[in-house]
Amino acid sequence: MQAGVLPASLPHERMMLNLALFHLLIPIVALASGLLLPLLSLALAGSLASIAWIGWYARHHHFAADKIKHHWQLAWKHCRWLLYAYAVSAFIMLLGALMSMLQADNNMASIILVIFSRLAVVPTLLMVLLLFVLETSALAESRKGN
User: What is the SS3 assignment for 26?
Assistant: First the structure.
């Protein structure tokens, strides 16, 4: 590798780090420790910062080779998919919050919040699983020089 030239695998490595750290490791620690809100907020903020960095770099950097640019653009595309999954999850959670506010019975309101919070996780979880597969494949291709 030449000095100052980033390998094509870097965006995929960053995306895999994002997925592993902010979507697997920190949520598991949050569930095990009982510090759900602070740790999940940290995970979301970290993931968004990682996505922003990949997006900024993919759009504002001049790449030495088209293959490297292609891999940055592909990682940015995968980041956008994750953002869409976050938006769907947030919408489901918002819908649950609104429905729970309309309930006169507090027990029913808390049941609705629990149900919708579990449903809200599904789009992001499925996208993370899909992106693990796609990013693993893209990482292997980038390391082969494709």
Answer: helix
- 81: helix, coil or strand? helix
Report the candidate in 81, 83, 60, 82 with the shortest Cα–Cα distance to residue 72: 60
Residues 6 or more apart whose CB falls under 8 angstroms from that of 59 comprise 76
Instruction: Quote the CA–CA distance of 74 and 33 in Å, as a whole number.
Output: 35
Across the chain, mean pLDDT equals 92
pTM of the model: 0.89
**Sequence-ordered strand ranges (E) for the chain:** none
pLDDT at 129 over 80: yes
Contact 120, 112 (CB under 8 A): no
Angstrom distance (rounded) from CA 97 to CA 99:
5
Task: Give Cα 114 distance to the centre of its chain.
Answer: 22
